[in-house]
Amino acid sequence: xxxxxxxxxxxxxxxxxxxxxxxxxxxxxxxxxxxxxxxxxxxxxxxxxxxxxxxxxxxxxxxxxxxxxxxxxxxxxxxxxxxxxxxxxxxxxxxxxxxxxxxxxxxxxxxxxxxxxxxxxxxxxxxxxxxxxxxxxxxxxxxxxxxxxxxxxxxxxxxxxxxxxxxxxxxxxxxxxxxxxxxxxxxxxxxxxxxxxxxxxxxxxxxxxxxxxxxxxxxxxxxxxxxxxxxxxxxxxxxxxxxxxxxxxxxxxxxxxxxxxxxxxxxxxxxxxxxxxxxxxxxxxxxxxxxxxxxxxxxxxxxxxxxxxxxxxxxxxxxxxxxxxxxxxxxxxxxxxxxxxxxxxxxxxxxxxxxxxxxxxxxxxxxxxxxxxxxxxxxxxxxxxxxxxxx
Length: 391
Description:
By secondary structure, the chain is an alpha/beta fold. It folds into two domains: about 1-170 and about 360-380, Rossmann fold, CATH 3.40.50.2000; about 185-355, Glycogen Phosphorylase B (Rossmann fold). The chain contains 13 helices and 13 strands. The protein has a seven-stranded parallel β-sheet with strand order 3-2-1-4-5-6-7, sandwiched between helices. The two termini are about 30 Å apart.
């Protein structure tokens, strides 16, 4: 088979969850020499990080804003390159395409009322496009892939889909996330980003589901109880955003306990995880929770949420707390701060848990999906794509 893979953001310099998943999946897929892979990306400034392989071609497709790129430029290229199956990896897909379609629908958070407001303008516009595109695409594509059993059930129920069309393919943890027992490298990253010897680590952003507000309220509660013994290192948020939240809750005294390095490249994250004493991932909603496994693979004890897909990913290898309850989060975090034996138990369980998830297993599951779709492809026709029509 000649398999087309949409990974439009693969060359952007600041990669996040879905970009990392696409990159790691493609790297594992090309280990199977039986098939040929054509990866379609938008031009950007980051170098191509995919392996050189005889069965892999990366095609840069310029094409304006993302909706135009996806709805016109991508299906045109699929026709030109003789693709047999198209896999779109980031929730949305072209409505008209000349071949069978597999869509990875990471989540349907953008369809849930409590997450329709908040976030920055880019996130809000993206959610509007998804709300228009996804219901139409999933009604006609051959398979919907999602990343957890929790999210699979949500998708089936919310979009009223036949269960056999929705497949769980778990994410995994990249090999770069591992225990780094090198004091010099850890000391270097501490010096580079101004990190203390011990700290709590949190990957925040302005998306409401990341629960930054409740994390700050939890720390403030512990501070007022004189139980806050470590500072928090929080990535991907600006000082102005944090100061605004602290002002709302009367928490200016907490500012001195928060370190904001901004964006840190994915290649550096393993060192940050290794340097951290505790990792926090108490999101209000996740379809998987990739950082949970990343921290575990680095030997860092994890506190995560007791809701959505996070217990499915964490198993018994993390401490769970209700992400809507500041009191419960404070109670569980205080346990981690004050009980070294508990941290050691979670460290060992986390290493074993992370080892269960591999990108090669993810790729093998996807290959099974592609083969099933290919076998059924002769039973239906596909809409014409007018590749000469102007953009």
